[in-house]
Amino acid sequence: MQGHRKQLRRFHEPGDVHELTFSNYRQLELLTRDDWRQMLCQSIDRAIANHKYRLVAFVLMTNHVHLLVFPTEVRPGELPDLDVLLSAIKRPFSYRVKQMLIAEKSPLLHELTVLERPGKPAFRFWQEGAGYDRNLRTEKSLLGSIDYIHANPVRAGLVARPGEWKWSSARWYESDKRIVDPELPTIHGLPPEAFG
């Protein structure tokens, strides 16, 4: 019996802020190590810079990630390729984690290795598929999304208020852009032209 695979229709509009969510394999609590979180932040930073996006807001949770991104260079008639951006974030990070698990002889390596087909093992840090995305076209929806993203660690019971969670852009916003943590990806905030 073929496994059901959810089909996600993606809408890539040039002037929109995009809310992206992607999860760990089988929703496992894998993002608990600070060294892995720092590696993921580096991967996000490189991909955002190389693919010409602004990082508006983010949060790293233990089993998923939320990003708000805004494309800065889209040619007329073209749409931003969010799949390329996500691949540029997830693939290098996953490769580095796999190498660490091999070096550590960690049993987690076996747990995250699946058979794609007979005789073809594959390492899976991230859940397969497109994840979730939506376009934010109004200031109200954008601000609501930022609040929702920043409140994730509070809802999960990890902290009492959003700014206490290191692995998000909440402190940057709460401090009016004064708190810049070098271990986090560069936060650009919302460009003034986002909603005209």
Considering the chains and any ligands shown, give keywords for the structure.
alpha+beta, Alpha-Beta Plaits, four-stranded antiparallel β-sheet, 196 residues, two-stranded antiparallel ribbon
SSE order: EHEEHHEEEHH
Helix count, DSSP H or I runs of 4 or more residues: 5
Task: Specify the helix fraction band.
Answer: 25-40%
- Order of neighbouring strands in the sheet with most strands: 2-3-1-6
Could you name the CATH class? Alpha Beta
Q: Please report which band the strand proportion falls in: under 5%, 5-15%, 15-25%, 25-35%, 35-45% or over 45%.
A: 15-25%
Low-pLDDT runs: 1-14
Shape: globular
Number of spatially distinct domains: 1
CATH topology: Alpha-Beta Plaits
Q: Which structural class do you get from the secondary structure elements?
A: alpha+beta
Largest sheet, if any? Answer: 4 strands, antiparallel
> Would you report the number of β strands?
6
How would you concisely characterize the structure shown here?
By secondary structure, the chain is an alpha+beta fold. It has helices spanning 34-50, 82-104, 108-111, 139-155, 170-174, and strands spanning 17-23, 53-60, 64-71, 113-117, 120-123, 132-136. The chain has 5 helices and 6 strands.
Characterise the protein shown here:
- A hairpin with a 2-residue loop joins β4 and β5.
- The strands form 2 sheets. Strands 2-3-1-6 form a 4-stranded antiparallel sheet, sandwiched between helices.
- The N terminus is likely disordered.
- With 196 residues, it is of the alpha+beta class.
- The N and C termini lie far apart (50 Å).
- It is built from 5 helices and 6 strands, in the order βαββααβββαα.
- α1 packs antiparallel against α2.
- The chain has one domain: Alpha-Beta Plaits, CATH 3.30.70.
- Helices cover 34% and strands 19% of the residues.
- The radius of gyration is 17 Å and the shape is globular.
